[in-house]
Amino acid sequence: MGRRILNDALRTMVNAERRGKAMVELRPISNVVSSFLKIMKDRGYVKSFQVHDPHRVGRITVELQGRIKDCKALTYRQDIKARDIEQFRLKMLPTRQWGYVVITTPDGLLDHEEATRRNLGGQVIGFFH
């Protein structure tokens, strides 16, 4: 169920970007969605986001930047070792210059650059570019 919530939220953002909208509202939400959005914000793909009523079903209002080309959550969580992250990134992303693979590690959700820097492996949950 959690994977579907993440995938629905990411697809909603991609569709809003393609329509040229400046803001999008995501619901239902989860902690994984807000952590994924934090990584996107840190990397400059999203201007800001605000979580409303997180203890119930909740919703997140996201202010879009206009940089998202594609964003997907993997329905299968693939285990990946720290030394294999670069090969996986080259296989999944269209170019070497831009895009990020998001990995859940023992230290929380990290993008591929931070996971490589910390020498951590984990499960791949999605990517964006």
TrEMBL record:
SUPFAM superfamilies associated with the record: Ribosomal protein S8
Top-level taxon of the source organism: Eukaryota
Transmembrane parts of this sequence: none
Family matches, as Pfam families: Ribosomal_S8
UniProt keyword annotations, A-Z: Ribonucleoprotein, Ribosomal protein
Signal peptide: none
Keyword Ribonucleoprotein included in the entry's annotation: yes
InterPro entries linked to this entry: Ribosomal_uS8 (IPR000630), Ribosomal_uS8_sf (IPR035987)
UniProt similarity note: Belongs to the universal ribosomal protein uS8 family.
Protein name: 40S ribosomal protein S15a-2-like
Organism: Rhodamnia argentea
Designated gene of the protein: LOC125316382
